[in-house]
């Protein structure tokens, strides 16, 4: 059996695309440096648009051309649909109810369908237009207030994050979680932020699985601690809703995503007959983690790119100044919801959430 196993492994290794030679144990880790995307581009020039790198004992295939990416995702999507589950994401309860860590199959399909038909659906997005405008107005106000500080420097990423968080909170719970009056909301925000910070840290146990039992940086332990605290808080919101005691549970209340999850009835084959409160907690929490950091980084990246391209920045500023506030399309057809505000000067500062 051992010989057979070894044979199969060496066969699998032979099927991987070629790549740069690495060191024993650490593989190619030290060839990546502090800007991995730049190192990938440099290595791809030498080793081609599809190459294998070894991050410790973790094999990683890097695709650096749109043609290869198209070929992979169009023609080999299902074969490549598996996911690597990082140590930080491995909870004591397994991955019950998780969409982000679900492997391709009926369980993933059921959760994904629910997302597509109930969360990302246009009618829901349209119904939320007012809430979106309110969250963005609030963000602009926070930014303007912060701009009055002595330093004049603003960590815009933090305000993007708050905006995205409040937006998702409204989609799921119909609540402003970051309302200054909501202590539980602030605590939920704190623990969710910690989870994202820890999950984004490089973890030596991911690269050298022999170390995973020791959790040398304590990342899995700390992540699970914050997840459990966040679950306790979200569990409270869920219980309140179930008991009909939550805020805004009046007859005219819009059906939010929590209602969808509580009302879910499955066939017991592709999905459970009903979701347990643990599963609801997991789904809710994942929506926050999937939707906040991504939105923040994308907006920050766009702003950083503008700062690096002063010509484009000037063109955009001129374009925005040409539009009168009353002419702005508040229906979001062109993506502008900002009302007239005092122009701010952008100064890049180190990123912190
Ligand atoms: C600019 C913002 C965003 C970017 C760049 C982004 C990017 C991505 C990417 C690359 C994936 C695939 C991950 C994988 O397959 O392992 C993904 C999945 C996902 N995203 Fe986003 N996302 C953004 C915003 C959002 C928002 C706002 C939400 C929800 C509120 C969201 C919810 C999800 C969920 C639930 C998944 C898992 C889907 C699945 O497993 O099939 N994302 N996102």
From TrEMBL:
One of its GO terms (molecular function) is iron ion binding. Coiled coil: none annotated. Keywords: Iron, Metal-binding, Oxidoreductase. Transmembrane segments: none annotated. PANTHER family: CYTOCHROME P450, FAMILY 76, SUBFAMILY C, POLYPEPTIDE 5-RELATED, CYTOCHROME P450, FAMILY 76, SUBFAMILY G, POLYPEPTIDE 1. Belongs to the cytochrome P450 family. This is Cytochrome P450, family 76, subfamily G, polypeptide 1. It comes from Actinidia rufa.
């Amino acid at each position: 059996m051992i010989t057979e196993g070894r044979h199969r492994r060496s066969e699998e290794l032979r099927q991987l695309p070629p790549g740069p030679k690495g060191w024993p144990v650490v593989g190619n880790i030290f060839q990546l440096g502090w800007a991995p995307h730049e190192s990938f581009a440099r290595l791809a020039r030498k080793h081609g648009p599809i190459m294998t790198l070894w991050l410790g004992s973790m094999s990683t295939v890097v695709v650096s051309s749109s043609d290869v990416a198209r070929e992979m995702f169009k023609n080999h999507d299902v074969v490549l649909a598996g996911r690597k589950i990082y140590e930080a994401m491995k909870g004591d309860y397994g991955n019950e109810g998780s969409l982000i860590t679900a492997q391709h199959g009926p369980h993933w399909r059921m959760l994904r369908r629910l997302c597509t038909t109930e969360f990302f659906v246009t009618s829901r997005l349209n119904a939320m237009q007012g809430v979106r405008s309110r969250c963005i107005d609030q963000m602009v106000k926070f930014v303007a207030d912060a701009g009055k500080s002595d330093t004049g420097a603003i960590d815009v990423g933090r305000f993007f994050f708050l905006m995205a968080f409040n937006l998702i909170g409204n989609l799921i719970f119909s609540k402003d979680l970051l309302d200054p009056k909501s202590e539980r909301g602030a605590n939920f925000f704190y623990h969710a932020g910690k989870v994202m910070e820890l999950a984004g840290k490089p973890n030596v146990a991911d690269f050298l699985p022999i170390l995973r039992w020791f959790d040398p940086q304590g990342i899995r332990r700390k992540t699970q601690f914050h997840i459990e605290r966040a679950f306790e808080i979200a569990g409270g919101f869920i219980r309140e809703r179930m008991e009909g005691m939550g805020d805004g549970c009046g007859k005219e209340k819009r059906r939010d995503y929590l209602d969808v999850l509580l009302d879910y009835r499955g066939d017991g084959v592709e999905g459970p007959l009903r979701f347990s409160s643990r599963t609801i907690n997991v789904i809710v929490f994942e929506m926050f983690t999937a939707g906040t950091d991504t939105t923040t980084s994308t907006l920050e990246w766009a702003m950083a790119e503008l700062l690096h391209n002063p010509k484009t920045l000037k063109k955009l500023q001129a374009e925005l100044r040409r539009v009168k506030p009353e002419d702005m399309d508040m229906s979001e057809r062109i993506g502008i919801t900002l009302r007239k505000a005092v122009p701010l000067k952008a100064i890049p500062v180190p990123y912190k959430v």
